[in-house]
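Appendix C reproduces, verbatim, an entry submitted by the partner laboratory led by Prof. M.T., so that reviewers can inspect both the input and the predicted structure.
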Amino acid sequence: MTKESEPQGTVAAPGPAPIDTLDSLREHLQWAVELEHATLPPYLCALYSLDPERNPEAVEVVGSVFAEEMLHLALAANLLNAVGGRPRLDAPEMLPPYPRRLPHSDLELSLLPFGPQALEMFLRLERPAPPGAPAEGDGYETIGQFYAAIEQGLRHLCERLGEREVFCGDPARQVSGGHFRHTAGWLFAVEDLESALGALKEIVEQGEGTARGEVWDGDQDVFHPDRDEVAHYYRFRELQLGRRYRRGDTPQSGPTGEPVSVDPAAVRPMRPNPRLSDHAPGSAIRTAQDEFNRTYCMLLNQLEQAFDGEPKLLGAAVGTMYAVKAQADALLLMPDGDGTTAGPTFAYVPPESR
């Protein structure tokens, strides 16, 4: 997401809650799993509100960011497994009502259709850490500062305890598979400090760009192999400003390349932050929302199992994503009576009610 790629030379002293025990490291890596998941519902709502035929460029951008956030979630789970933790996703605290805060931060997330308000939220979420910003394990202002604190904790514990003591997890729990679908990123096993730092680098450079304030994330554009890939923050700036970055552009110059077209009329007007309480039980919209929530919580359960010792179940989770998309598409076609359409609520459903 956001952080300099070489934080040991750019990040200031640790914040008030340094990560100095294995238990603290595991706790913060579970927070990383929760953080990565928390970004998914807002990106999905923006993505599903877009007409793919009339807004193909916006669909490409938001869809690619969502896919990379799924990759970041898997890498965060690999990091937690590598240090002897157990990733948890199928739990009520993963799905508090929106609007909500990003875990252990004041950054607010809402469920919105694509548009200026959603873009502003995504830009706040993916904002690069300022040069010299302190590592912050809690109460972070940018996601990069949070990951900087995790990196500091990893380095400190490896120096104090040794890598074998820190990376004590079962290698069989790692989820890997090389190139990650629809992204230029890579899903790989984490087994030592080098691979752990590689996972953090993959996460943060895709969000904010490579070191020294570049707009690029170091990969080739998966949709346009002739172009370098732009980091998440700058992809959203392209949509906001209506122009692509080209080689030589900087954060200060802004994008000076070819135009990017977004058709505001080709966005489904989803009700912001829909709630189950907006509709009576048994009504068509409420029934569709309940069905979506059951499917989404089944997805969380499959992801948890995949990260909890059954890596092959990741394929089943990918299949469930198609059901999630179909149910969300159906909701966003249902008029909600006030000029808006219905939308998914992402409410938690206990296992016994699925």
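The chain is about 45% helix and 5% strand. Additional entries are available on request from the coordinating office.
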